[in-house]
Amino acid sequence: MKSFASLRxxxxxxxxxxxxxxxxxxxxxxxxxIDFQTDILRTRLLAISxxxxxxxxxSVSATRPLPPAVLTTTAAQNQxxxxxxAYQDREILYELQSPESHAFRITHDYTVRKVGxxxxxxxxxxxxxxxxxxSFDLDTGARLKCEIVNGKQATERKLPITDTIKDDSEIxxxxxxxxxxxxxxxxxxxxxxxxxxKSYYLDSDELVWDRTFGRLRNTVxxxxxxxxxxxASPATIQTLPDGRVSIFVVNPRNDDxxxxxxxxxxx
Length: 267
Hints:
Strand content: 35-45%
Number of domains: 3
Order of helices and strands: HHEEEEEHEEEEEEEEE
Low-confidence stretches: 1-5, 21-34, 69-77
Distance between the termini: 128 Å
Shape: extended
Strand order of the largest sheet: 3-6-5-4-7-2-1-10-13-12
Structural class: alpha+beta
Mean pLDDT: 80
């Protein structure tokens, strides 16, 4: 009996100690949770304080007038900053004829945007001579009236040409079907033949093309039976379905680029 009583006493002491340990651990967890929640509360209060401070700074700044330099810049930005170069969509195709003729057929695709515009003027580059012009309205497919006039005639007729011209300048005038209305555009195509012995000629048995391009997208097509020997400009070169060689040149600059190439006849 005595041994049994001693065993019971030890068991009761062990249970009491275990209960005390469990209470201690639960207390640690409880107080740990309190500390964690306190940290969250402190973080939220800090975030609120920062927000209130920033909002106060912006509210004070909003009541102050902007500096004149900022106002000037803002007003300039509100104006249309685009020039023709920014949305340049003119495409030009040069189809080279026999090099002995120094002639090449040019095709311009151009979008008219100026409100009230009645004409499209193509001032021929000095040194070149133009013939056989044709104009088309690409929006309707209609053929447009076109004519070749010199600078003196254009001046006498008071044609609104913005380019600098001389009395002997050659100008191809395309008459639009109607004056351009606000909010509208008119896509047209002008085809014409140029002759220029200074930029297109034969050097011994090689064809030479040496001309500057001022527009964005330019394509030169060699005569049938010729292949490209050398090119001094970056370009995309391909063979067309009819066997002719096409050289596509992009001018991303706001000035002219020189395109120099040489070609030979296929044997």
